[in-house]
Specification:
6% helix, 317 residues, mainly beta
Length: 317
């Protein structure tokens, strides 16, 4: 997940796209606890936003993910995967404010994992995606990214790693270094850290009930191509480069989670899990960005913190 600043939001939001790949780094060699399918929806409470007139805006998302692990020999694996994310930011009040379009984020990826009995692991991933209202397809909606990490299993309970992502979006290339840590102080407790993206701590009772906490950042920029929306946010007397070109959203999230396995498979924690998440979003930014990569004049790009809740269904191998 990712954070922006006041002056470099478009570029940093692009970097966030690459950072999200790190969430898929497996905790262990092999296929333990791999996610094969997931559906999730979440919604945040409405907050006031200035565009420049005060309005109330509410952010909600829905997503679906799927993956098919394929063994490669005794110590390797390829995982083709797909995901689709729908994000809505409707204005709640006043009703006469022009509605922003829903934005879409389809993605396909191919992940490769190779591990050796000595404890070394190499993990790589390439992905291609689109992000925007997708009413028109051009280079501005395309996202390309790659990830490579080298990891060392120091013991049965501790794995450390380092690597980097490389992303391309809006005509810019950007690398981001990564550090990873996976630690199981006991069979029931697991700590996963992917710096500078996220931290997750979970405790599982009797391989049926799981509670945990997560802290991290999320964000992306979405190209807007809908003519009606562009005309609304581009007055006839607007200067060149001052019209709406994309919407950017980023936030930090602090989350508590509880999950229950309702269908068990042969693997330790495999099966169908139902999960409920709740928490607070902070350092939120919702920006209407121009072709010149600056917020539209008069827009307050900061959103107040807000509580959110989500529900998910996951199937683990």
């Amino acid at each position: 997940m990712c954070l922006t600043n006041l002056n470099g939001a478009p570029r940093l939001l692009m970097l966030c796209f690459g950072l999200l790949l790190a969430v898929m780094v497996p905790a262990r060699s092999g296929a333990a606890d791999q996610e094969l399918f997931a559906i999730q929806g979440d919604v945040a409470l409405p907050v006031n936003y200035r565009t420049p007139a005060p309005v109330r805006v509410q952010v909600g998302t829905a997503s679906v993910r799927g993956a098919v692990p394929l063994p490669v020999g005794d110590h390797g694996q390829l995982v083709p995967a797909f995901s689709y994310r729908l994000q809505l930011a409707p204005y709640v009040q006043p009703t006469e404010v022009p509605a922003l379009p829903p934005v879409h984020w389809p993605e396909v990826s191919l992940t490769g994992l190779r591990w050796w009995p000595s404890g070394w692991q190499v993990y790589g991933q390439v992905s291609a995606a689109m992000a925007g209202d997708l009413t028109a397809i051009d280079a501005g909606v395309v996202r390309l990214a790659g990830l490579l990490t080298l990891r060392r299993r120091l013991s049965e309970r501790l794995t450390l790693g380092a690597g980097a992502t490389l992303t391309w979006a809006f005509g810019q290339l950007a690398p981001i270094p990564l550090l990873t840590l996976d630690w199981n102080p006991s069979d029931a407790v697991e700590l996963q850290v992917v710096l500078p993206v996220r931290l997750t701590l979970t405790h599982t009772w009797h391989r049926r009930t799981r509670v945990g906490m997560r802290a991290g950042f999320v964000g992306n920029a979405f190209a807007i191509r809908d003519d009606t929306v562009l005309d609304t946010f581009c007055p006839t007397d607007a200067a060149a480069g001052a019209c709406l070109e994309r919407i950017a959203y980023s936030a930090g999230n602090a989350t508590l989670m509880v999950g229950q396995r309702v269908l068990r498979t042969a693997e330790d924690n495999g099966g169908l899990w139902l999960e409920l998440h709740g928490g607070v979003s902070f350092l939120r930014r919702f920006e209407l960005l121009s072709v010149a990569e600056t917020p539209l004049e008069g827009a307050d790009t900061r959103l107040p913190g807000s509580a959110f809740a989500s529900f998910g269904i996951r199937y683990l191998k």
